[in-house]
Amino acid sequence: MLKLGVNIDHVATVREARYRGRGAGEPCPVAAALVCEAAGAHGITAHLREDRRHIQDRDVVALRKKISTRLNLEMANSEEIIRIALKLKPDIVCLVPERRQEVTTEGGLDVAGQLAALKRTVRRMNDAGIEVSLFIAPDPIQVAAAAMTGSQSIELHTGAYAECFGKARERKAELKRLAAAAAQAHELGLQVNAGHGLTVANVPPLLAVVPHLVELNIGHSIISRSITVGLTKAVKEMLEVMR
Ligand code: PXP
Questions:
Q1: pLDDT value of residue 96
Q2: Catalytic-residue membership of 157
Q3: What pLDDT does residue 107 have?
Q4: Which of 12, 107, 115, 124 is most buried (CB neighbours < 10 A)?
Q5: Angle at CA of residue 29, ends 105 and 12, nearest 5°
Q6: Strand stretches in 76-232, DSSP E
Q7: 10, 54, 157, 196: which one is catalytic?
């Protein structure tokens, strides 16, 4: 069965907008993760960024303790975060490129260009019992390089697909690239996941064309939608206490 990992970073984004530096505050990403699990999510994904713009160290520690599904820690291949991951022991880490200026992870990892460094990190994680996934563009060179690192999985970057979803010809071409990358990765023995920019509108056409998908990691659209579907209850609760 295709699995869903819910990325809860944006819950922390909202909290940090009001409570940065205070060590607590709402909305709580751990509480959100527990709701996602209760709703059937198969895993929780959180990105501990080097600049700590949303998820904080205390969040990943609490997530590790409290969730009962799998914890997928997204992270840059940086020594500081590697050490945190080795101590935290998430079930899996997904190595992503990180640029401070970007709003979210914009491009895939250049695995081919940093093969030796990534191989070392994959070995360190695997030795600690942590699986590794590499977040890459659907590019045959990057897929081949990912297999050479010894990582267990790749996560295909679906951002370009999501961006061109409204343009039929570009969408078709992007789906073709994703399908070819998924087939190549599967052939090379890698588990194939996908994520970034996925929504209830663009997931069905993706699944119709791209083979071997095991897990989708989805954040922004689920957290966004929860605002509109959840606002009614939040307003009613406030009116009730005012009455
Ligand atoms: N997968 C990876 C590796 C990501 O970096 C992100 C964004 O944080 C996601 C999935 C989720 O993307 P979105 O929030 O657009 O669903």
A1: 97
A2: no
A3: 79
A4: 12
A5: 50
A6: 92-95, 131-136, 153-157, 191-195, 213-218
A7: 196
Low-confidence ranges of the chain (pLDDT < 70): 100-106
The structure's pTM equals: 0.95
Query: Could you give the number of structural domains in the chain?
Result: 1
State whether the beta carbon of 121 lies less than 6 angstroms from ligand 1: no
For residue 227, what is the domain's CATH number? 3.20.20.70
Angle at 203 between CA 197 and CA 206, to 5 degrees: 105
Per-residue pLDDT at 104: 57
Convert the pLDDT of each residue in 45-93 to its tens digit. 999 999 999 999 999 999 999 999 999 999 999 999 999 999 999 999 9
Q: Please indicate whether residue 196 is annotated as part of the active site.
A: yes
Phi, psi of 74 (to 5 degrees): -85, 140
Name the residue of 13, 74, 109, 200 whose CB sits within 8 Å of the most ligand 1 atoms, as the mutation to test its pocket: 74
Give the model's pLDDT for residue 209: 98
Which tokens sit at 205? 């056409």
Give the distance (Å) from ligand 1 centre to CA of residue 233.
27
Query: Could you tell me the residue range of the domain that residue 123 belongs to?
Result: 3-242
Q: How far is the CA of 162 from the centre of ligand 1 (A)?
A: 12
Q: How far is the CA of 44 from the centre of ligand 1 (A)?
A: 12
